[in-house]
User: Which sequence fits this backbone?
């Protein structure tokens, strides 16, 4: 599995918001995390649509977490920014059915399904508050 730059930057931005614990402008967050401002804006819009962050208007506005750190998992961020994890996409027949001319083909497809499920479960167990330095 390869995590995209978008998901990597999104995780960094969300972690920064969790550590600062106050709304930050895109400009401030961009400087703090050394991220391209235009790209960060698109990432934050996606995270806002999924309910991970909120945008607050006004002088002391900016982006902030929409939920408590313990209620945001790494899976929430990766799924929002990268979509469902696909380690393997088996070829499909014209009818849309998966070809399984031999038992070994279907069995090998099961390996990838188990891997995808394992990645989702693992990332779902890692909450944002586990990654915030204590102290």
Assistant:
């Amino acid at each position: 599995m390869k995590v995209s730059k978008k998901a990597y930057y999104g995780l960094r931005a969300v972690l920064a918001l969790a550590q600062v614990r106050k709304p930050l402008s895109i400009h401030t967050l961009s400087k703090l995390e050394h991220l391209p401002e235009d790209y960060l804006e698109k990432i934050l819009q996606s995270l806002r649509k999924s309910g991970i962050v909120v945008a607050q208007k006004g002088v002391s506005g900016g982006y902030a977490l929409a939920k408590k750190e313990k209620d945001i998992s790494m899976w929430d961020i990766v799924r929002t920014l990268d979509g469902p994890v696909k380690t393997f996409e088996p070829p499909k027949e014209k009818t849309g059915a998966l070809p399984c001319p031999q038992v070994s083909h279907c069995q090998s497809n099961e390996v990838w399904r188990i891997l995808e499920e394992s990645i989702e479960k693992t990332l779902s167990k890692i909450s944002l508050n586990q990654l915030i330095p204590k102290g």
